[in-house]
């Protein structure tokens, strides 16, 4: 009974934090879309694509290990947390240095050589993010979503008080880049202040090996998931203009933010819950099905509503200069509905059981269709690629 109450409270705080944060973020984007042109968002999309990729490598799946693994006591847990922290920090510093040194060749690979310096500055948030990743994992493990709520709100408010004024003053993508760095800094400061755990001078190679034996497949799964999320952005960025890239990525991000008000609040709680209940098959499956059905009930009207009223939604969310993105908003609403309920949530079952290898295999099968489908249709034209990308969700499910 106590465990159920703890889970319910965690779900409440997680839901509250995501709804509040996802409400503020779209509100900020609604203002920014009326201040900045789609081209500016296209530049930042290229930066975020690279930063999110490297961020996965620096974390190396250790955060999921800390959430999922059963430790003998708090002392053992703290030792593994230390090994994770120092490994993450070292890798993030190394990767950031590499990006800064080779910023122009990297930008050239991404199809935008002129933005090498922008990519170098944006990569600084990698070091900042590595500082807070372990605290986030430990809070999720202990179901302490109340503190994560405060950190989430602090990060969500950053665009309103930093990015929007800068955008009005600069009328440039630099406002978005600086805003992302400030948000990462705020998150690190708040989580470090709340956390009882502090890194100490401790390191153990054997513990690193133990974590990596699990985290290797978890990392592969995360990288495959990143590819699913960003491959279309990479193709659009290399074949089409910054305008079309900004039009596409900002529209899809907005839909994900709106749907994420509900879905993103449940995923961390679901993983923590299933990881604790995995020894009891009845409670394990009962908890999963209850949350999945609840998500289907909430997300169906959101996804269908975005599709049916896509023109009105686009006008309200972005303004008249983004009218071309109405069809993107509509079809992505339906796609996210299917993907979240019938893929993202079942994926947590594999993670909680400690078998991300199987999930990775499924993702490779999906990518084997997704990548050539997006690339071939992008050669035809932009809109054919957009619709094909969304239809591929049927193969994913």
Characterise the protein shown here.
By secondary structure, this protein is mainly alpha-helical. The protein is built from 17 helices and no strands. It has helices at residues 2-35, 38-59, 62-68, 74-101, 103-109, 116-122, 125-141, 145-170, 174-194, 205-239, 242-277, 281-308, 310-318, 326-352, 356-380, 382-391, 393-396. The protein is globular and about 55 Å long. It starts with a helix and ends with a helix. 47% of the residues are buried. The mean pLDDT is 80.
Largest sheet: none
Q: What structural class should be given to the helix and strand makeup?
A: mainly alpha
Compressed to H and E, one letter per element, the order equals: HHHHHHHHHHHHHHHHH
Mean pLDDT: 80
Q: Count every beta strand, where a strand is a DSSP E run of 2 or more residues.
A: 0
Provide the low-confidence segments as ranges.
none
